[in-house]
Structures are given as C-alpha cells and as structure tokens.
C-alpha cells in the first residue's frame, strides 16, 4: 500500500493514525508528479485531493473510506464497536467533524494576515465553530475516556487531527481554550495528549502543522 499526501492534512493524518493504532506502518509520501494537481496524480484520483491509497494499482480516495478499508483488511484492534448503535455513533461523530467543524477553518485561513483581516468574517467563524463543537460534545460519550466510550474508535481517528489543526489555527485569533464550557471534549483532549499513541501522534502532527503555517506566513 502507498498513502499519498502530506501529514499536515488532517485527512491524511487520520489514515496514518488509524494504521498506527492497528500496528500497520503507513507513512504518507509525495503524490506522483510532485503534487495533487499533477497529471500523474489526477490519473489516479481525478478529484485532485488527498489522501489517496494505492492498493496494488487500485486507487481509493476519501479518508474515511480509506480508514474503513484498513478496518476491513486489518480487523485486529477494531475501530468500530460490535454494537450497531455504538458503531453508528462513532460514524456520526466523524461525520460531524467533516461536515460541520472542518468547514469552519475557512474564515481563519482566509484571514491569517492581520493587515487584510475581515473581523466580521472571523467573528462569524468563531460563532459557527462554537456551535459545531457544541453539537459534537452532545453526541460524545459521557463516560469516556475516548470520544465514543471506553475504546479508541473511528471517532477519535477523525476528531484528533482535525481538532489539533482547528485549535492551532484558532489560537492565532485569540481562542485560547477551544473547549471552554465543553467538559466532555475537554476531558477527551487531555486524555488524547496523555495517551502514549495519541500523545506522540499529536506532537508529530503539531510539528508538521507549525512548519506548514510558518511557510504560509513567510
């Protein structure tokens, strides 16, 4: 298998994190042709997005699809519970991240330069992000320590990279505690940083993100 993309992408990162949890070495590598818009890469994935997973010449796209493929072919240490309702809830948490939280990064990315910042857009983005995070909190397990309960799952794989990026970006706009007033998310966040697997992953991801942001500001 070959995973194409950059670790700084939270979507690539979730595939890497899922693989590590399962004991699979799956390091991302540069797309063929040097970028996701190259002719070589578009021949594999005409959507021109990352990640893509090459499995014996067959290309799989979309991060959750890739993670569920890993789940199917490497069922040890499952990422989805046996109980049907809990399986659905893990998928729901991942869905909320993709549809309601990730899009709220846009106003922050577009306004990283203070000289050209649209403060009204930023404030609207903060409110929309707070609403999406509250929705995520609502559907999280009350027992923890993971997002969907006692066991690491698809929900954590989806949530951690995206919220690491969101937290880092929002901090530059004065949001110092992304999870203020959200006790389940706050406890989950602390657990992720204390856990051996996810704590090490968080440090690696944040380093990649810092390098990326430095290049944008430079």
List keywords for this structure.
218 residues, 9 helices, 57% helix
Descriptive account of the structure:
This protein has helices at residues 10-21, 39-44, 63-73, 84-101, 106-110, 119-139, 154-171, 183-194, 196-217, and strands spanning 2-4, 28-29, 52-55, 58-61. Helix 4 packs antiparallel against helix 6 (119-139). The protein contains 9 helices and 4 strands; from the N terminus they run E-H-E-H-E-E-H-H-H-H-H-H-H. The mean pLDDT is 95. The longest helix is centred in the C-terminal third of the chain and has 22 residues, at 196-217. With 218 residues, it is mainly alpha-helical. Strands 2-1-3-4 form a 4-stranded mixed beta sheet. It is globular, with a radius of gyration of 17 Å.
Beta strand %: 5-15%
Mind telling me the C-alpha Rg? 17 Å
- Average pLDDT confidence is 95
In angstroms, what separates the terminal alpha carbons?
35 Å
Strand order of the largest sheet: 2-1-3-4
Low-confidence stretches: none
Helix content: 55-70%
Please, how many helices? Answer: 9
Overall structural class, as computed from helix and strand content, comes to mainly alpha
Q: In this structure, how is the largest beta sheet organized?
A: 4 strands, mixed
Shape: globular
Instruction: Tell me the number of strands.
Output: 4
Note the run of SSEs as H and E. EHEHEEHHHHHHH
């Amino acid at each position: 298998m070959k995973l194409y993309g950059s670790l700084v992408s939270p979507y690539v990162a979730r595939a890497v994190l899922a693989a590590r949890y399962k004991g699979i070495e799956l390091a991302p590598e540069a797309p063929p042709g040097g970028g996701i818009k190259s002719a070589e890469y578009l021949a594999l994935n005409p959507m021109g997005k990352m990640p893509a997973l090459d499995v014996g010449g067959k290309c799989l796209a979309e991060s959750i699809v890739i993670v569920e493929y890993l789940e199917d072919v490497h069922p040890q240490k499952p990422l989805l519970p046996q109980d049907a309702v809990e399986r659905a809830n893990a998928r729901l948490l991942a869905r909320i991240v993709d549809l309601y939280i990730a899009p709220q990064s846009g106003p922050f990315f577009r306004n990283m330069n203070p000289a050209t910042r649209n403060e009204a857009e930023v404030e609207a983005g903060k409110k929309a992000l707070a609403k999406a995070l509250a929705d995520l909190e609502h559907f999280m397990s009350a027992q923890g320590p993971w997002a969907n309960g006692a066991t690491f799952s698809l929900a954590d794989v989806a949530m951690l990279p995206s919220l690491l990026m969101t937290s880092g970006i929002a901090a530059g706009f004065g949001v110092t505690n992304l999870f203020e007033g959200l006790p389940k998310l706050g406890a989950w966040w602390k657990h992720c940083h204390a856990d051996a697997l996810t704590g090490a992953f968080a440090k690696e991801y944040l380093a990649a993100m810092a390098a990326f942001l430095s290049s944008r500001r430079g």
